[in-house]
């Protein structure tokens, strides 16, 4: 019960914190959105070209009409594996140490279940990665907390067991990679990582 209460408290605290666009007047300025399109300072939301998707490759970011904000949209088509990527350090060569992070808040909509993998710089390629399920929202926009406790992550059986430890994935996280084997309409409007602020590039 104590663990559940702590997770709920953390989620509420993260939700109550000002979003980057709202914090533009903060004295530190470090919560501002980037000069180029970004969602919570994450600039690279990419269709990887793996699986039939729209867009097929390149950025998933599109402006939200009537605002200065962006959303990331991608359609997974057909019953095959699809891959969409977020670079956590806003460059492929970078990595983020998430060892002090309790988890992340994801604001998204999905018409089907999928998984998100935490891929480290040292084991970036291949489907055998640590992953957690991202439940379908039936097309509704929701915000959910995803814990970075090891117990919350496992392998996707069809993709194989990772050869690296979960600790290494957390310590040298290069990206969050969304994978799914079914048709899916996906939209991402927020990704806020506890105790981690991306550097704009």
Description of the molecule:
With 201 residues, this protein is mainly beta. It has a single domain, classed as Sandwich (Jelly Rolls), CATH 2.60.120.260. Helices cover 10% and strands 35% of the residues. The chain is built from 2 helices and 12 strands; from the N terminus they run H-E-E-E-E-E-E-E-E-E-E-H-E-E. The strands form 2 sheets. A 6-stranded antiparallel beta sheet has the order 3-1-6-11-8-9. Strands 2, 4, 5, 7, 10 and 12 form a 6-stranded antiparallel beta sheet that branches. The chain is globular and about 45 Å long. The N terminus is likely disordered.
Question: Which SSEs are present, and which pair or pack?
Answer:
Layout lengths: L1 H15 L28 E4 L3 E3 L2 E3 L1 E3 L6 E8 L4 E6 L15 E8 L3 E7 L9 E5 L7 E6 L18 H6 L1 E8 L3 E10 L8
Antiparallel strand pairs: 1-3, 1-6, 2-5, 4-5, 5-12, 6-11, 7-10, 7-12, 8-9, 8-11
Describe the structure concisely.
Helix content is 10%, strand content 35%. The chain is mainly β and 201 residues long. The chain is globular, with a radius of gyration of 16 Å.
